[in-house]
Structure formats: C-alpha cells, structure tokens
Amino acid sequence: MRSSPLEGRHRALEAKMVPFGGWEMPLSYPSGTLAEHRACRTDAVVFDVSHLGTLRVTGPDAYGRLQQAFTNDLARIGPGRTQYTHLLDDDGSVLDDIIVWWPDQDSFDVMPNASNTDRVRDALGGSGAGVGFQAVDVTGSRAVLAVQGPEARSRLAAVSPGASEVARNCVAPVEWEGIPLTVAGTGYTGEDGVEVAVPAAAAERLWDAVTEAGILPAGLGARDTLRLEAGLPLHGHELGPGITPLQAGLGWVVRWDKPSFQGREALAVERERGIHRRLRGLRVKGRRPPREGQAVLRDGEVVGEVTSGNFSPMLETGIALALVPPDVNIGDELAVDMRGTEVPASVVKLPFV
Questions:
Q1: Cβ contact 310:225 at 8 Å
Q2: d(CA 74, CA 57)
Q3: Across the strands, what pairs with 320?
Q4: What is the DSSP letter of 283?
Q5: Is the pTM of this model over 0.90?
Q6: Fewer CB near the terminus (10 Å): N or C of the chain?
Q7: Coil, strand, or helix at residue 309?
Q8: Sheet containing strand 171-176, strands side by side
Q9: Contacts of 192 (CB under 8 A, 6+ apart)
Q10: Domains assigned to the chain
Q11: DSSP string covering 331-349
Q12: Rounded distance, CA 45 to CA 215, Å?
C-alpha cells in the first residue's frame, strides 16, 4: 500500500484513511463528507489526489506515441493546454480515462487513474528509453493538490497569484516561494479550480499554506459525491471492461479523423451497428441512496443496472448513473430495485447539479 507525501498531515487532522487503488488515502476529515461536499459547492476545498499517476513522456516520438495510443487528438490543442482522452482495449472498451497535461513543447504529463499507471505505460511501449521517447513514472516524486470550488481561485490567490490565474484546460509552470509547481486548470468536481503538482519534499509546506488560506480539506468521499452530482464517470464504474466511450455518452472524446488509435476498429463497428445500452442519470424519489449493481426496472422488467449511486447533498435525494437501453429518454419514469423495494426514478439530464 502506497502513501501520499501528505499522509502525516492527514493523520494530524484525524482523517479517516482507507485503501484506494493501491494507496492509503483520506476518505473524510472530522468535518464529514456532507460538509466537505457543500463547502466545495459554495466556497473552496483542497483534495490530496497524489494517488493519480504521472507518466512524464518525452522525446521526438512522444507526440506520435500518444496519438497512436489515445482516442482524442492532440492536434486540436497545443503546448500549454490539457486534454481529456481514453485508452481503449482491442474490443473498444475503456482501459483507462486520462488527462494529458502538455506543459511545454518537449514533454507531456500523462495522468492515469491510480491503479492503471503501469497499464498505460505498457500501452505506450514501456519506458522506451533510447527508442525516440521515454515514459517515466514520476508519481512518487510529487504530490498533487486539487483546489476546487467557486471561491477556489480567490482564496488560492492569497497563496500564489500565479497558480490562481491558470485558466481552465490550461497548464503552466509557476514558481511559489522558490519551489517549481505545475498548475493545470482541471478538476473532477464540476466546479472551477486548479490542480497543482508540487515536489514531494515541499508538499506539506504548500498544503499548510493552502489550508491556512481558509480552504477546507476534503476527502475521497466528497470527491465521489461531487463527481456523481456533476455526472462525471469513474473508471471501474461508468468506464471499464465491456463499456465503450459511445455507451458512456463520451463519443466527443473519440476523433474519427485520426488515421489510427488503439481499439478504433472495434469502436467503428459499434458506431455502425449502434450501441445496445447507454449511460443515463436517474433521480430517485426520496433520500434513500441507490447503490452500484442494483437493477433498473421498466414496467417491472429489469432493463439495466446502476453503475454509481449515492445521496446528493445538494439535491437532498438519491441520484444514480445507470446503463440502460438506448431507447430510454430524458423524462422517462423507471425504478431502482433497492433490496426488494421498487423505488421510482426519473431519467434526468446530466449533470444533476
């Protein structure tokens, strides 16, 4: 089990620590998940997301390798920008969803999910030393802080004006008190904010400065309910074996005008044939939270399955993402089987919040 450079700070704050993707990370702090969630929607919070991987990809063949491996098209952006993309299996399903930071002309920071770093590096051809590119796992050398919320930038400006000014979907180097940071206008909450990569040795110093600026620490519990309210997929739930970008409603991340990428042929067959299921949002009647794996019913017949479900702190009702038949439309009335009880659920437009 790996630990974050900020583990000492989490324990000092009496965080509840849990295993996640091979890491021990904070689930919540004494303030509780509901308070942390609401603080992100109304003010600002900071998450430790050091469990995310970072592959530093460099060399003259780096751009081409990423283009061949991933579904999105780096030609649509350029240095100083970020891009959301997918790595597909040969059957077109999503092996991982990834953010690529392109901080300068000669290097890329590829950010896989926690448990998928080795898989993504293998898809790029391994370390690649001496063959035109390198893909080096630098995860252990840094921490990543995600500062999120409508007041994230104004509060962060008291710590680092440069970091607070990095625009959405952009990435830039920033110096803070002599320490080099890489700051990206990205996040996973549905709110504005930035993610900050800081050398591991300076992580506690930056964390202290951020929290002293009035930014509340938040754990993985709030991160999950926030991304669910925002209708954002989580690998292993809405993306994974057997689930393609088209089924997940993420066809925009696939650039068909690229000559090739891993899994393209199988995905093209599905596009031609038509998907047999699609991801939809369900708002459930009452406060009872739906849970992953529960059946979705239409007129008493099982037609789908919940992929993620929870209580929405902002809507104060149960919400879920579910894979259902493609003819299920917004406004339809379904039900979720919650331990033998059929609870009514309305199909709603995403995001929930």
A1: yes
A2: 14
A3: 282, 309
A4: E
A5: yes
A6: N
A7: strand
A8: 171-176, 179-184, 193-199, 142-148, 45-48, 216-217
A9: 148, 149, 150, 152, 153, 168
A10: 2-53+140-229 (3.30.1360.120), 55-137 (3.30.70.1400), 276-348 (2.40.30.110)
A11: T-EEEEEETTEEEEEEEEP
A12: 5
Identify the CA nearest to 79 among candidates 51, 38, 107, 60. Answer: 107
- Measured between alpha carbons, how far is 173 from 105 in angstroms, rounded to an integer? 13
Compute the distance between CA of residue 64 and CA of residue 347 in angstroms, rounded to an integer. 41
C-alpha to C-alpha distance for 97 and 112, rounded to whole angstroms: 7
Record the tokens describing residue 3, joined without a space.
């630990």
144 Cβ neighbours under 8 A, 6+ residues apart: 48, 49, 50, 52, 54, 195, 196, 197, 198
Per-residue pLDDT of the chain (353 residues; tens, 9 = 90+): 999 999 999 999 999 999 999 999 999 999 999 999 999 999 999 999 999 999 999 999 999 999 999 999 999 999 999 999 999 999 999 999 999 999 999 899 999 998 899 999 999 988 776 678 999 999 999 999 999 999 999 999 999 999 999 999 999 999 999 999 999 999 999 999 999 999 999 999 999 999 999 999 999 999 999 999 999 999 999 999 999 999 999 999 999 999 899 999 999 999 999 999 999 999 999 999 999 999 999 999 999 999 999 999 999 999 999 999 999 999 999 999 999 999 999 999 999 99
DSSP structure class, residue 185: B
Tokens 């690229």 — which residue? 258
